[in-house]
Amino acid sequence: MHDAAYIKRRDEIRTYFDRTALEAWKRLTSTEKVSGVRATVRAGREAMRQTILDRFPADLTGWRILDAGCGGGVLAIELAHRGADVLGVDLSPQMIDHAVEGLPSIRGGGSVTLRAGDMLAQDLGDFDAIVSMDALIHYDARAAERAIAGLAQRTRRKMVFTLAPRTKPLAVMHVAGKLFPRGDRSPAIQPVAIERLITATLSRPDMADWQARMPRRISRGFYISEAQELVR
């Protein structure tokens, strides 16, 4: 059962992407020229996507993977090319419609299924692995901990996800975003004390058989995010 704070935040994010951000997101994830700020975000996201892919073997035949907060589906597609059967879930129905329109043919025997919904929904089933790139960064530490623990109960091998570190530059950007809101700005990122969050998560009784691997931080201008890997 989701708590009220999680549901409120989830619905804010869905509303933002469905009503405000889709066109800006299309430009960001395309190959067309973008502004200097968006160019750093694009470069950061590309580096982070490769960082996540590097945590997986080249052959994922037989793996079932959840891409939680899949956006345009790029990461899901890359995992499917390695042979995985990937379910991509995103809160925004319009984002999913856009992603489905651009789905390529999958090589390597894998598959991609995209659907709109809540990444924590129990009816999604169980998975060998879960990836979540820049979805948990919109939730505070308490909600993120609960989400990670909830996802872990349905995961057999590993989870690779990103969090926004509580750094001075990111804190400044976060405050500026609140003071000077614009219609095309994404929902406020929630920087967290990552080491404390991971320690608290792994200290839960329901996370007793999980352990953390070495994280990796990506910092490209206005993009600052840290990849975490938890394994059984």
Which structural traits does this protein have?
232 residues; eight-stranded mixed sheet; Rossmann fold; 21% strand; 8 strands; alpha/beta
Give the name of the CATH superfamily: Vaccinia Virus protein VP39
- Count of individual helical segments: 7
- Structural class label: alpha/beta
CATH topology (level 3) name: Rossmann fold
Q: Low-confidence segments, ≥5 residues, pLDDT <50?
A: none
Q: In which range does the helix fraction lie? A: 40-55%
Distance between the termini: 24 Å
Task: Assign the CATH class.
Answer: Alpha Beta
Main sheet record: 8 strands, mixed
Strand-residue fraction? 15-25%
Number of domains as seen in the coordinates: 1
User: Mean pLDDT score, rounded?
Assistant: 87
How many beta-strand runs?
8
Reading the helices and strands in chain order gives: HHEHEHEEHEHHEEE
Rg (CA only): 17 Å
Shape: globular
CATH architecture: 3-Layer(aba) Sandwich
